[in-house]
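Please check this record.
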Amino acid sequence: MLSSNTTLFSSLSRRMASRVAGTATRGMASIEPYEDYGKHLFTGAVADEYLAKHGASAALLKDPTWTQHSADTVAAAVLDWAVDNGANVYCHWFQPMASSGVRHGQTGQVQNMMMEFCREEGKIKFDFKGKDLIKGETDGSSYPNGGLRATHTAGGYLAVDTSSPIFLRGDTIFIPSTFVSYYGAALDEKTPLLRANEALSKNGTRLLKLLGYEVDSLQANIGLEQEIFLIPRDQYYRRPDIQLTGRTVIGKNAPRGQEMCDHYMAPLSSATAALDCMREIQEECWKMGIPLKTRHREVAPNQFEFAPLFGTNTTQIDQNIWVMQIIEEVAARHGLAALLQEKPFNDVNGSGKHNNWSIGTNTGINLLNPGQVSKASGNDELFGIVMAAIVSAVDTHGDLMRMAIASPGNDFRLGACEAPPAIVSTYLGEDMTSYLEGFKNGTGGAYNPETKTLDLGTSSVLPFEVPAEDRNRTSPFPYGGARFEFRAVGSSQNVSMVNTVLNTITAEKFGEFADKIEAGASPADVAKEALNAHWKVIFNGNNYDEACQQELTDRGVWRIDSGVEAINTLVSEKNIALFEKMKIFSEEECVARAAILHDHYSGTVEMEALTLIDMINQHIIPSCKAGGVGPLADLEAAVGTLKSAVAEIHAAESSYEKAQLSRVLRLETMIDIRETCDAAEEVVPANLWTLATYKELLFLDSHVDAPVSEFYD
């Protein structure tokens, strides 16, 4: 007995030592481990050090015209930086359309070595010139393009985006780039966003000048909260639906879900791989200059969140694309699978990517911070006028806001479990609403947000102040202290379209306000007129409540329940006119992009349906037969139903028609079939059920990775 216990104790000790060695990433806390922050991002002090060797400085990069007169200088500095950090490969890194949920990393790239091969001498030397840095070329016809490219007109052209710094990872530098056709049509997510940034700056600075506040430029700043699921990788391999589509198309609920609210912001346990995984994700991001500051558990079991500091929209979107790729890759190294899809599991929270949006001047003043902008401008009414323009934009173009979040995964997420419904309103809070009501009624002026003091009745906690606005997590677009939070955005999305829309609709209203002021109207009257016309979009109530949803519908705010129909608003007469006027999209680009998004939707649904057919045939029916239980006839009939539905989609003539049929298949037919499959899971003995269950997928804390046999080696 003594020998047996000694053996067990030794095994446990080895196991514990191994676990501690794996989790103890650093000893005493200090700043030293973070000295490599930003080392792999060519900007600021890093760029300054290398450009100085070539007679320049990082200030050069702030003027986009360096691509015309100093490209060779920058390329030489980039090459030195790359080599010093172990990289000898470069690529133009771009963002094709319709990538979410299907394309790993959501980017395109062709990796080339920064070397010259001297055949005569049989030698190799480093070589990277300005012409290599600033532009490239690829096949534009092999990416989703909506007819903008074809095999016989395939040119796709890449140009460096000077607003976003070059990244380094591994042996490769990644040059953020735009991707356009031979005729300049956008084939990517980034180009329209850059155009919208120009429109916002142009129209916004014009309006501000009329209000007595001159600035050189405006920029949209965003902060993106990234929600994910982390599940055991061995169980991930037992779910073809998660592997191929990112979500469970079937699955009986576990006896436990999120009903006890026990996962939200609970301690990150060192007993599972999740904490080590999150640490490594942060550390990889920090080297690349991505300030991924916050980590915590989210509401659903195995759901987590990262959040960075805010920054300009182009840099933050590029960084978020990297964050998603790094999450997936690092998770695999820790025996986990990361799920970015909006609704991987039924009846628990889905995942979002809350898009916190504000507008800043080139001098760092936030136009959505009332005290800051009033002090900087000397105009107490300026904040109210800006808010009136945004309220007007949300009411006029709520259809485009809904279009921008019409990702396939949001089909199941919007309207429940802390995701707002598909009804576009804005929450301002009682204090802000009261201020704008005064503005609407002609008694404008400065907005001085009230605070209130909470006294907990104990000397251990002194009274403290809280903001004027409460949090309304049911609103799709709430104001929350110097920013708007677009909460309806999906977790897997590239948010370029989201921010393209926000910038474009705001730019239009800034321009309209400026036109009226130049025509002789007073700024206060322009704001008053806009608020009176668009007041209905302000709603501070509970957007989950069905009576409130009906109230909003009766008010006439934009409500588009179907993501497929929301996508189709991209080609409405109103929206084509808007995008053409603001120089964001041509009509041809709008039509192409709508077709691409519809194809992305129907393609996603087809993958789900074909995967479900395989799961029924290869897993569920055999399990039912082995156990002698379950609805075999209904399951066999379901396979035929699915095949017929897919064939009908293939026979449809247009992308729009295919997407309409796909939505019916997904939200009606497949939900009914899911109930049949889940009924089978309920009665088949556990030892005969070959698919990973919700219990096995969703509870890392109670499903430790170490098998019991390890303790008895």
Q: What stands out?
A: Residues 1-26, 706-713 have pLDDT under 50 and may be disordered.
